[in-house]
């Protein structure tokens, strides 16, 4: 009996940790956390506009003015990052955006812990990963393939908290022009539950894959009220742990 209890606890506790940060998606026309359809107020935002200061350099801009720092590790070309002018893989008003190259790991370190992180995910592919942690402990590992699963290749619809229904096809293609129609563009929100904060966000691009394009990174020290316009995006690690828990319970029951 004690052995069964230990097995159950070992699996359920990681599930609880993964569930501390919920992932949400805005309607397809949202490119920033403070846009009317998202309406997250009180955020600090990094736009990666070169004229406003290189976030990897010495000129503070956006989040850096609030004490955050950007760094990069990995096997990408040069530093593993590039700042590209708005083009096929950008949004309608993003200007310069961040391009994490193959094998790169872009790290956003926060001097003051946050409970909200927003990111405009551009030209989405299934080879990206977002890791959010606190004091060295991982709180969430989000495989961006989950977003593409949610959008189902542009077939069908998704439903927001308030009941609004969005066509998944509208998320595909560069906003405004529809170019690059095979890739998705979506603003993602990572909202921590009460009492939970984080101090590091990593944007990882797998070696040999394309790039991790993103823009308009926003943070907020306290968790906002989740807007009704947002759509829940399932987190795969939690699902896998849930299935693992179920399988273990079935095994234990079978051995009785």
Annotation, overall tally of beta strands: 15
Overall average pLDDT: 77
How would you describe the shape? globular
CATH architecture of the largest domain: Sandwich
The CATH topology of the largest domain: Jelly Rolls
- Report the C-alpha radius of gyration, rounded: 19 Å
What is the number of helical segments per DSSP (H or I, 4+ residues)?
A: 3
How much of the polypeptide forms β-strand, as a percent range? 35-45%
Structural class: alpha+beta
Low-confidence stretches: 1-17, 235-256
Fraction of helical residues: 10-25%
Order of helices and strands: HEEEEEEEEEHEEEEEEH
N- and C-termini, Cα separation: 10 Å
Count of structural domains: 2
Q: What composes the largest sheet?
A: 8 strands, antiparallel
- According to CATH, what is the class of the largest domain? Mainly Beta
Written overview of the protein:
The protein is 17% helix and 35% strand. The protein is α+β, with helices and mostly antiparallel strands and 256 residues long. It is built from three helices and 15 strands. Residues 1-17 and 235-256 have low confidence and may be disordered. It has helices at residues 2-18, 145-151, 236-255, and strands at 21-25, 44-46, 69-74, 81-84, 97-100, 104-114, 116-124, 128-134, 137-143, 157-159, 165-167, 184-192, 198-205, 212-220, 231-232.
């Amino acid at each position: 009996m004690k052995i069964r209890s230990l097995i159950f606890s070992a699996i359920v506790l990681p599930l609880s940790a993964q569930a501390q940060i919920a992932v949400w998606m805005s309607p397809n026309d949202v490119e920033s956390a403070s846009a009317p359809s998202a309406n997250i107020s009180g955020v600090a935002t990094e736009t990666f506009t070169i004229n406003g200061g290189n976030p990897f350099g010495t000129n503070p801009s956006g989040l850096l003015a609030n004490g955050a720092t950007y760094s990069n590790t990995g096997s990408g070309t040069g530093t593993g990052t590039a700042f590209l002018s708005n083009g096929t893989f950008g949004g309608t008003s993003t200007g310069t955006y961040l391009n994490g190259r193959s094998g790169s790991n872009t790290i956003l370190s926060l001097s003051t812990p946050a409970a909200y992180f927003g990111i405009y995910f551009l030209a989405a592919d299934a080879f990206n990963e977002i890791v959010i942690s606190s004091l060295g402990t991982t709180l969430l590992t989000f495989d961006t393939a989950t977003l593409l699963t949610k959008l189902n290749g542009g077939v069908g619809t998704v439903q927001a908290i308030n009941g609004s229904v969005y066509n998944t096809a509208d998320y595909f293609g560069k906003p405004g022009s529809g170019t690059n129609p095979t890739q998705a563009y979506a603003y993602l929100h990572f909202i921590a539950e009460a009492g939970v904060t984080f101090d590091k966000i990593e944007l990882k691009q797998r070696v040999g894959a394309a790039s991790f394009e993103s823009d308009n990174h926003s943070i907020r020290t306290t968790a906002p009220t989740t807007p009704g316009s947002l759509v829940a995006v399932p987190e795969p690690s939690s699902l896998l742990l849930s299935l693992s828990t179920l399988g273990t319970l079935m095994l234990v029951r079978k051995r009785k």
